[in-house]
Amino acid sequence: MSTLSPVPTDVRSRAVAALAQPPALLERVISADTLRGVNKAQALKTSEPPSAISTQSGTALDQRVFDALANAKTFAAMVSMHLDKAWREKLFNQLDDLHDLSEWETGDEPVEQKSFITFLKTFIALDPRRRPSLGMTHDGHILMAWVRGSDRLTLEFLENDSVRWTVTMTIDGNKERAAGQTVATRLTQTLAPYSLQDWLSNDK
Amino acid sequence: MTSDGQQANEEQVPEGEAAGIMLPASKEIPSEYSVMRYAGRNRIIIEDDKVVGFFPQAFALRPDEEYLSVTWIEYFKGAPDEQRVRAIKAFRRSFPGVGKQSAYAIGNVGKVRDECVARSHRVRILHEPEDENKGHCAIRRFPRDDSDLLQVLSADVFTEIIPNISIP
């Protein structure tokens, strides 16, 4: 696994800010290479999905899933310089997995764009060395989890930078649980009593 | 024979699966038994291609759900392992959309009830058989917005995990 130097805070902040910019402003804040990636992703988004080509008429679900997935990958491409290559590939694979129609449950929604932006901002800010497992709620919120034996930390990404968190861990032989909601920028402070950096740095 | 005087209808149960356990008239499942919860790939935690747990959100009610669906393991006859397999097969019959990467988590009824009551949720865990899954149960009065409860159910109550793919 590649070991990149930590991304300087100001660079990371610019990347986070880019996620909130209208597309027309992207050229000012991302590199030419990244812009090419964004354009490719955009082309993918606007092209006809394979399901529609093969069946002549993709279902509404097919289309919504395809669009949401393409949107998510577009946003990830915008900040690709802050995601190491191995993780970026893993992220895209997990996103594909989360949108696998053969696993789809009736009533589920594809990834919700605002949730995904909160997820990306948080992920870049935390820069975890130990990669989390990803999941998704029935209404399209991205979930993230780290598990160590019977200990676990889970995050649910909501709109407007809000993050719902739960932690279960054994401290000095006593099991402790906590749950709450905070904003992404305060997550480090909120989870400090639960050794957040240990969860993030314990690479496997 | 059940406590309300109804004969267990073996003809309606595929493969003659009913263990024939008597329940109180309320149909409330006693604390010593176990129930099984299904979760699709998106609500399970996978590390290194191995299912290691359920996200708390695997226990969240959808907006249109009035109760949390689970399957009563001991409804089915056989040794414990056979009961689990029968329960999973019954669930599959009742839910055609079971995904290959999905999983089942098993928890003790008494612990489920205790954790709910400890948070002032007076749930009722009732046997409500369905045509294809005679072991189906409904956890009624289950709260819609209690992150703490969902967390404890996923981390400390439903701790035995069975990947769907492990049951042919």
What does the model show?
The complex is a heterodimer of chains A (204) and B (168). Chain A is an alpha+beta fold. Helices cover 45% and strands 19% of the residues of chain A. A 5-stranded antiparallel sheet of chain A has the order 1-2-3-4-5. The longest helix of chain A is centred in the middle third of the chain and has 19 residues. Chain B is an alpha+beta fold and 168 residues long. In chain B, α2 packs antiparallel against α3. Classes of the chains: A alpha+beta (204), B alpha+beta (168). At the A-B interface, β1, β2, β3, β4 and β5 of A face β2 and α3 of B.
Can you describe this structure in just a few lines?
Chain A is 45% helix and 19% strand. Chain A has nine helices and five strands. Chain B has one domain.
Greatest contact between two chains: A-B, 31 and 29 residues
Could you estimate the helical fraction of the residues of chain B in percent? 10-25%
- In the sheet with the most strands of chain B, the strands line up as 6-7-4-1-5-8
Largest sheet of chain B: 6 strands, antiparallel
Structurally, the number of domains of chain B stands at 1
Outline the low-pLDDT stretches of chain B: 1-13
CA-CA gap between termini of chain B = 32 Å
Strand order of the largest sheet of chain A: 1-2-3-4-5
Report the structural category of chain B: alpha+beta
Structural class by secondary-structure content of chain A:
alpha+beta
Total strand segments of chain B: 8
Proportion of β residues of chain B? 15-25%
What is the C-alpha radius of gyration of chain A, as a whole number of Å?
A: 18 Å
Shape of chain B: globular
* CA-based shape of chain A: globular
Computed Rg of chain B: 15 Å
Estimate percent helicity of chain A: 40-55%
Average pLDDT figure of chain B: 89
